[in-house]
Design goal:
With 158 residues, the chain is of the alpha+beta class. 25% of the residues lie in helices and 44% in strands. Strands 1, 2, 3, 4, 5, 6, 7 and 8 form an eight-stranded antiparallel sheet that branches. A hairpin with a 2-residue loop joins strand 4 (45-47) and strand 5 (50-56). The longest helix has 15 residues, at 109-123. The chain is globular, with a radius of gyration of 18 Å. Bound molecules: flavin-adenine dinucleotide (FAD).
C-alpha cells in the first residue's frame, strides 16, 4: 500500500531529509513480526543511503529484523508549541524524517569495522578508533538500506 503525504506543503525534500537524518543523535527503529509492532531508540550513523547501528547479537529487535527485514527508522526535532490559549488551536513545531528499507547484519569484518568507525566518529570524533577482535566478534552491526525517505515539518516561518 502506498500513501502519499496529505499535507504536501509540509513535506521536506529528500536531500534535506537525508541531512536531518544524518545529524540526528537518536533514531527509532520500527520492526514488526507476526502482527506485533516493536520500536526501540538507538544511536546510529547515516551515510549515503545506509543507516548503521550496533547491538548485541541477541534480543527482540534483532530477532524481529531477522524474521522480517522490512523496517523503518524515524528521527525528529520537537521545536516548540504554537497556537493561542484555545486548546484546539494548539499545535507543534517540528521536523521529522522516516526512512523505509531493509535491514541486514553485516558479516564481512572489514565492512563491520568501517560502519562502527562511522558511529564512533559521529558521537566521539576525538576518540581514536580501535576495537579488540573479541569485542568485534560479540557485536553485531546492522545496515539498513534505505529505499524511501520522507520528511515532514511544521515551522514558525511557514
Ligand atoms: C538514546 C538511546 C540510545 C541507544 N542506543 C543503542 C544502540 O546504539 N544500540 C543498542 O543495541 N541499543 C541502544 N539503546 C538501547 C535500545 O533502545 C534497546 O533497549 C536495546 O537495543 C535492547 O533491545 P532488544 O530488542 O534487544 O531488547 P530485549 O533485551 O530483547 O528486551 C525486549 C523487551 O524489553 C523492553 N525494552 C527493550 N528496550 C527498551 C527500551 N529502550 N525502552 C523500553 N523498553 C525496552 C521491551 O518491552 C521489549 O519487549 C539505546 C537506547 C537509548 C534510549
Amino acid at each position: 500500500m502506498t500513501h502519499e503525504m496529505r499535507r504536501k506543503e509540509k513535506s521536506i525534500p529528500p536531500d534535506e531529509a537525508e541531512l536531518i537524518l544524518a545529524n540526528a543523535l537518536v533514531g527509532r527503529l520500527g520492526t514488526s513480526w507476526n502482527d506485533e509492532p516493536y520500536i526501540v531508540p538507538l544511536n546510529f550513523a547515516y551515510d549515503r543511503g545506509k543507516v548503521y547501528f550496533h547491538c548485541a547479537n541477541r534480543g527482540k529487535k534483532i530477532e524481529f529484523m531477522l524474521r522480517n527485514p522490512a523496517v523503518c527508522f524515524e528521527v525528529d526535532d520537537f521545536l516548540g508549541i504554537k497556537g493561542s490559549e484555545k486548546p484546539c488551536s494548539l499545535g507543534a513545531y517540528y521536523r521529522s524524517v522516516i526512512a523505509f528499507g531493509n535491514a541486514n547484519i553485516i558479516k564481512e569484518a572489514e565492512k563491520k569495522e568501517e560502519a562502527l568507525k562511522k558511529i564512533v566518529n559521529k558521537y566521539a570524533k576525538s576518540v581514536k578508533f580501535s576495537i579488540d577482535q573479541d569485542v568485534l566478534d560479540r557485536t553485531e552491526v546492522v545496515e539498513i538500506t534505505v529505499e524511501k525517505i520522507t520528511g515532514k515539518q511544521s515551522l514558525k516561518i511557514q
